[in-house]
Amino acid sequence: MPPDIVGLLKLQERDLRLGELRKELARIPREQEQAQSRLANNQQAVSTSKTALQENEVAIKNVELDIGTRRETISRLKKQQFETRKNTEYQALGTEVVRYAGDIDALETKELELMEKADERRKVLTKAETALASTKAGVDEEVAILTKRTENFTKEAGILEIERKDLLVGLEEDQLSIYERLLKQRGAPVVVQITSERQCSGCHVKATPATMVKVFNGHELVNCENCGRILYPQ
Ligand SMILES: [Zn+2]
User: Which of 35, 62, 167, 188 could be bridged to 16 by S-S, CB 3.0 to 4.6 A?
Assistant: First the structure.
C-alpha cells in the first residue's frame, strides 16, 4: 500500500495546531491565578492600611475620653474647694487640680501626635486604594482577554477535532496506527521530509541510500532508521 503522505500531512497539520492549543489552554488558568494573586496583594495592603487607621481612631477616642474624665474630676475638685472651709484641704484640692491639669496637657499632646499619625495613615490608605483600583482595572482586562482566548481556542480545537475525525476516515489503518504511535512517542511533527542530502528533517541523522530509494519509490511507508519518523521526499 503506497503511503498517503498528503493525508498524513493534513492530519499532522491539525495535530500540530491542536498540540499548541492544548498547551495554551493548560496555561491560561495559571495566568489567571497569577493575575488574581496580584490583586490579592493590593487588597491586603488596603485592608492593612484601613485597620491601622481604625486603630489610630480608637486611640484618639480613648485619649479624648481620658481628657473628659479628668476635666470632670477637676470641676468636682473645684466644687469641693469652693465648699470647704479648711485651708489645708483647700490647698490639697488645689494641688490635685494642678496635677490633673498637667495630665490633660500631656494627653492633649498625645492626641495631637495621634492626629498627625492619622493624617499619615490616611495618605497611606489613599495610596493603597489607588494602587488597588489601577491593578483591578488591569487584572479585569487581563482576565477578560484570557477568558475570550479560552473561548476562541476551545472553539478552534473543536473544529480541528471534527476535521481530524473526517481525515481519519480516508487513511489506511496500519499507516494511521504507526502515525499515532509515533505522535505519542515523539510529539508532532512525525511526518518529515528527507533532504536531498538524505538527512531526516526530524532528527537530522543521514539515512542510508537504500532508505532514500525506498522513499522516492513511494511504494511503502518508510521510517527514519534513527528516530522512526515517517519520511517523505522533497
Ligand atoms: Zn530521523
Answer: 188
* 145 within a domain of the structure (yes/no): yes
Does residue 182 lie in a domain region? no
Residue-wise pLDDT for 180-231, tens only, equals: 999 999 988 999 999 999 999 999 999 999 999 999 999 999 999 999 999 9
What is the rounded end-to-end Cα distance, in angstroms, of the chain? 20
Give me the residues near ligand 1 (ion), CB cutoff below 5 Å. 200, 202-203, 224, 226-227, 229
- How far from the centroid of its chain's Cα atoms is residue 103's Cα? 53
Q: In angstroms, what is the span from residue 118 Cα to ligand 1's centroid?
A: 72
| Position 2 pLDDT exceeds 90 | no
Residue 27 lies in a domain: yes
* DSSP letter for each residue of 91-108: HHHHHHHHHHHHHHHHHH
Size (the chain), residues:
234
Domain, as residue range, for 124: 22-158
